[in-house]
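Can you give me the bound-state structure? Components:
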Amino acid sequence: MQRVRLTTKDIVYIALFAALMAALALFPPITLPMLGGVPITAQSMGPMLAGAILGARRGAFSMLLFLALVAIGLPILSGGRGGLGVFMGPTAGFLFGYAAAAFAVGYLHERFWRGLNVVQSLLFTVAGGIVALYAIGIPWAALNTGMSLTQMAAGSAVFIPGDLVKAGLTAIIAVTVKRAYPLIHTAN
Amino acid sequence: MTPIHRLPAGTKLLILAVAGTGLVAVDRWWGMAVALAVTLGLYVLARQPRDRVMAQVRPLLWLLVPLFLVQGYMEAWSLAALTVLRITTLVLLAGLVTLTTRSEAMIEAVEKGLRPLARFGVDPAKVALAFSLALRFIPVIARQSAEIRDAQRARGLGRNPLALALPLIFRTLRTAGEVADAIEARSCVGPDTPDDGPASAP
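Here's the bound-state model for the whole set.
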């Protein structure tokens, strides 16, 4: 991982990816029958994509910027939600986890950038986009509602198949984008 | 404008933080009901219409109702009521801060809050640039995503996630490159640039 400061170009990528996250809120959720009716929102793929395409630091910052824009009051969260209120509910942990998830996904993608293939990308995305995200989301939800970790984990299990689909899509996208826009490990 | 609107953003955020922490200490459901009533009273004070309250609570119902039922049945109804009331109060209180604070004031408060981090290498100019770029390009990228959706729908790929995501991502990355070049070109001061900036060059 580079230890240099963020360049102007980095800032632009961060800002535009945050804007992209906002635009993803406009896509209606997709319901795949194999998932038993649990909808997948386009926006929830954002942290995975941010990490896999922009890398750890820029990906994490783009998510933080997006969350700051939500906090300011812009209705850019899936469903047109926004404002500080969304950070107070039980699902807010999954929002806070966006930055950590992007960082984890990005770190793994940077580490194994050379010769990255879809299977690796899928593994990294699952590790960062699912494991790291739930590691923050579930404890927060448990604390917020006063329920136990096991109860929360059990309740959240229904979303895992959908998340795996998202991770698969992200892996395909990451490898495809890498061929045209290898942003990681290039001199800016 | 109501007195709540006039309060500085930083003050409101501080009050929210204190209230949020304080509410955790309330352990009786009727105490929380009082807190909720106070919050709703603040909404009246801030002259917010009733549907603004409902608009914030409605997205939570899919979660709050099952939560109330499960927790009430498995543990205690008073605990379930406490939990649901607390979440509702916190969400509404935070929402009130958002409703009574202008975006610019919030951004200012965020930047002021980040200033002490400057010694750790956080550049306030870059933070400001990031915010303004993101704000300016949300409508641009939203429009691009609508165009792509229409184009792919015409091809029968309207529900294919890859057909929607890949073009949009490529487009965003290309736009980012162009914007970065434009910023660098504009800030470039060469030997022929007059003293009042590149824009006034013949």
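A couple of observations. Residues 123-187 of chain B form one domain. Chain B has a mean pLDDT of 85.
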